[in-house]
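Hi L., both proteins are below.
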Amino acid sequence: MASSITKRRDFIKRSSLAAGSLMALPLISKAEFFNSSPDDTIKVALVGCGGRGTGAAMQALLTKQNVKLVAMADAFRDRIDECYKNLTADDLSDWSGAGGNVKDRVAVKEENKFVGFDAYKKAIALADVVILTTPPGFRPLHFEEVVKQGKHAFIEKPLATDPAGIKKILEAAIVAKQKKLNVVVGLQRHYQNSYRELFNRLKDGMIGDIVSAQAWWNNEGVWVNLRKPGMTEMEYQMRNWYYFNWICGDHIVEQHIHNMDVVNWFKGEFPVKAQGMGGREVRKGKEYGEIFDHHYVEFQYADGSIMNSQCRHIKGTMSKVDEQIMGTKGTIYCGAMNITDRKGNVMYQFDKEKENNPYQTEHDELFEAVAKGEYKFADTEHGAKSTMTAILGRMATYSGQVMEFEKTLNSGISIQPSRYAWDADMPSKPDKNGFYPVAVPGVTKYFS
């Protein structure tokens, strides 16, 4: 145990840097690191206290490591209060091998519950590991600060909503590697046993060379939060964030990224261009902001192979969330957890009894690495480029044009507000009837 604690302290010294310029790229000697924790406790800050944040914090507190939640931050106080109430409930399960209730690991003093647009900086300063689970429009700004302060992180997908945000994430990822900061991205299929086993057999050559892939996220959609009297435009869009691109990215980015990411992961590269179609067939009310209810995108990789991607939010239609990857020798069916040859004969079947909870595993592995003083996880670059894949798809369906990956990534296009404040001028504003402008293929353009 003494050896483990020593490793923990040494790791904090190596990986927790004093706040400095994000672009200060030269490596810093070990003598310049400082110890941010006086014992073996891993201090955690939660930035973004909605439903996903509550779940991620729960998973962090369910790990076998000596973890304490010490700070919480959100733009809204009611979200902090609800999250805190849920995490300190009496009926939460014991964590494996530790004994006691999850609430015993919640050590957030009242003064460490930070509210507002700058709350994230104060929470990050108190932690060794930061959980970033706000809506994705804020992710580049928050991750940049995490890296600046030299903290390890779990960052939920997607990592941005526009090309400018992805560039900021990629720049921060370079610094995170140099500071040896563990970063796990919430693309949990990378931490799921069945997907890992399918990937291993792909690498062993079982299906040959990948020639095409299918990716689906089709279901009935998600929640809606209606406007309430007295809300500023910023507050309304943040409360109903799923339906505004600056903060959500559209459902092709917020949800369908999972499926496109699997194909990118198995393929080992990212598309070079995309074209597609989409629109608002059913979800046309003012409460649905500016996003589409369906997208279909054809992505092309450098070798000419194709990924066909479809996502839909329409009630009463076929529901399917899955991936299928076709090779010269066989096909991977991710949902069925098997691989068949070209005649349909099963060559490999994953044992479903060996499946895990990947949402828990990604936290188990992250916090184990931090506790042991190991640098093992650098998910950021891959997560950013898979996010960019989804953004590329959205821009292709919105415009009806062929969108090139590198050109779009380097375009500098930003859809963020000029500032983050309750009275900010928003990038998308309603007309006199409360309806928001919606992209029109053939009319909406990103490049001349």
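That was the first. Here is the second:
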Amino acid sequence: MGRSEAHGVRAAAEKIVRRLRAAGHEAFFAGGCVRDHLRAVEPHDYDVATDALPERVAALFPGRSDLVGKSFGVVIVREGGHPIEVATFRCDGPYLDGRHPSSVTFTDAREDAGRRDFTVNALFWDPVSGEIRDYVGGRADLEARLLRAVGDPGRRFEEDRLRLLRAVRFAANLGFEIEAETWRALRERAGQIGVVSAERIRDELSRWLTGPDPARGLDLMDSSGLLAELLPEVAAQKGVDQPPQFHPEGDVFTHVRIMLGRLRGAGEVLAWSVLLHDIGKPVTRSVDRDGRIRFNGHEVVGERMARDLLARLRFSNAKADAICACVANHMTFKDAPEMRVARLKRLLARETFDDELELHRIDCLASHGDLSIYDFLVARRTELSGESLRPDPLLRGLDVLERGIAPGPRVGAILREAYELQLNGELRDRDAALAWLKNQLRS
């Protein structure tokens, strides 16, 4: 979201606040937008909290409000083309499923702050006067860069187990320390994370992986016990030593952590590819008679493991396919300088090539440091930029069938060979391709 759009969202939210105020209600900005505002970071979305009941909010904004969470006091108001969440102050009843309150009671701002997750997310901001309302010590924790649960941390995590992952995400992305009692309660309840839906878990994991410090997120996941619960394939990389001549940095887990440390706001495909590219190593590790450590076929095994893991987290097929392509192909780059032009073009033409290339670059930087293959590929891509990497075939199946070849495997073999020659530059036009075909059928 650009700066102008962010300003548009704020203006829309402020207009809603003013309308609620004019109707005699309390209304504030609430949650993450207040936290980011106080950190001098431009918020990208704004939530409004008010003492107006949901039906009253809907009545004040007729024709452009949806009671999407009436039982929880949530109304989406469309203002200036922007959907703004407007929530009535509430306190929550018992959480029976570890995720949602069984009931809510509408209340005032102070009690509403007391049911929120972390103190830095429980602040209210009056956009008209600029006043900040802080009932839980959130400003002090913000200044101390400390993530602290509101009230009893054990109770907060028992209410909603997703908060275990939210704590990791906020601490990693904000660069905050987790307060001691909050951290203790988190570690004690890491084993309960399984009650959260796979989709919610996936989204929270992606948010720190694509954030500004994914290496810190990995550290927190590991030391909290959440990594072993949710991503045991990644946790299994700890202590798996590697050939020191290629990996002087240490074991597989250390290697992956160093790679994550080079990511800053990466796309989801690249971030997950970095995390998963070597998960096949623990199960393929072997030692030669001469003592050399090997991981033969780890990219093949890793691709299967990654696909199972991504399916477990309910990734879309398209996203899983892209991540798995990066995992499966990450060892092919070492052969690039010896590839024939046709194979090289196919490599460059892969839809995931940009992510694969960046994965290769940081893979090298996190190990032996040799970027010669990366530099070679960048140069070859520049050289071949004027050519089509995926040209239309000069020969079609009908060309072969019309010359008396019966449908079957031979047709496909001829077409594949012709396309290989075309990519290599040995067949440059259709006439040359037809002449080649004629010669092939004579032999």
